[in-house]
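Q: For a teaching session next week I want to show students how multiple molecules come together into a single three-dimensional assembly. I've collected the sequence lines for a complex. Could you give me the predicted structure tokens for the whole thing so I can convert them for display?
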Amino acid sequence: MTSAAPTTSSRDLPHPARADIRLEGVLHALSDPMRLGIVRELAADTGRELSCSQFALPVTKSTTTHHFRVLRESGVIRQIYRGTAKMNGLRRDDLDALFPGLLDSLLAAADRQATRLGVPG
Amino acid sequence: MTSAAPTTSSRDLPHPARADIRLEGVLHALSDPMRLGIVRELAADTGRELSCSQFALPVTKSTTTHHFRVLRESGVIRQIYRGTAKMNGLRRDDLDALFPGLLDSLLAAADRQATRLGVPG
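A: Of course. Below is the structure for the complete assembly, covering every listed component.
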């Protein structure tokens, strides 16, 4: 036995398998401006994981937790505990395999809308 | 004066202008399996208008009306009264202008999922 705790533990959060991800669930997850913003930030930082606290969301901690949970349960993001931090990463491989081109189309549409409305991208 | 009633009348239904259509609203509208199915049917019949009653939805009339209203209010479809029938058409021009490629990506993703799950397309 080693003294290092395994990265995955009983605190593992439930994630849908790739085959259980549904388009409707993904669209629902992205239909909220805050969740769409989170996904845009994760997509901008290719492959990097970000902790929930790195997102400066103008809502309570419990609302933040809720938004990340919706994204995780729909299969859009993967959340992994690293120590006390919950780290978040986009499930790009899974989404691209299921729906080729969709994520990029959605991100492009979100960029375009942000530019059109003059809000920060 | 002519005896023909104008196509548009006081019974006109409210639609968002193109500039008021929001990506989040479109995604919310498409996040329901029944509404996504309606949009796929409208897209398959390019340019054709279909009346609400042409959709054989396994729900009550009021639920059907609700789903069409969500699609209209989000800017996904246009609903026009023709006589006593409410006719529905996809706002493809508006959606393509705002979010180039997005509608086709969404329809392709929905087709792919239907094939994968073995449900009627």
